[in-house]
Protein: Peptide deformylase
Organism: Isoptericola chiayiensis
Amino acid sequence: MSDGRAWPDEPDADLVEAVAGLLDAAFAREGRPGVLPIVQAGDPVLRRVATPYTGQLGAQLPRLVEAMRRTMLDAPGVGLAAPQVGIPLAVAVCADPGVPGDSREREPLPFRVLVNPRYEPVHDGGTPDRAAHYEGCLSVDGWQAVVARPRSVRLTGQDEHGAAFDEVLHGWPARIVQHETDHLAGRLYLDRAEPRSLTSHENLARFGAPDAAAERAAVELGFPLPT
């Protein structure tokens, strides 16, 4: 029988104090309250495996989730992992309004919290379908590159209340949760990218429609589309 707690462990007093201080400062900020600084590539926190969340933040977890939501939307982005704001815990948030008719299958993804997420490709009688598209990251500001990822994944983990989930996602929502879950394993999207496809946001805009950018870039930059 449960003892009524969502998480098995007691809060970590030192971590609670550090995170509370960070959040207090963020929510007291005028103009953009609750928006946290986003860690950029090169900071070691982005290359460490995040610690599984077991209750270390106690009552600070909802405040962190809200600050991460505000930071993600302010950037703007469609996902953000706790290491990207300097907190090495396995927590991420994501949301995307979607783009109707987009060939990348960019269906809406309602706001959600991923705690201790894991994903695995969904097989349909053989090798999982993969799709190659341009992908960016708030921690690699100003740049994008082509990444081939499974089109469908099975995602498991917990929500912010400790409730378990086990579901299959497709298309762009599947790409978002893969990207954020990779952050919690110390990986950046560049680790999976086609190096020759790397481009600035400005130059990517020259390729036309975002859903066709990877194909045009492959021709103009001279690389095979990864599969």
About this structure: Residues 13-129+155-187 form a domain with the Peptide Deformylase fold (CATH 3.90.45.10).
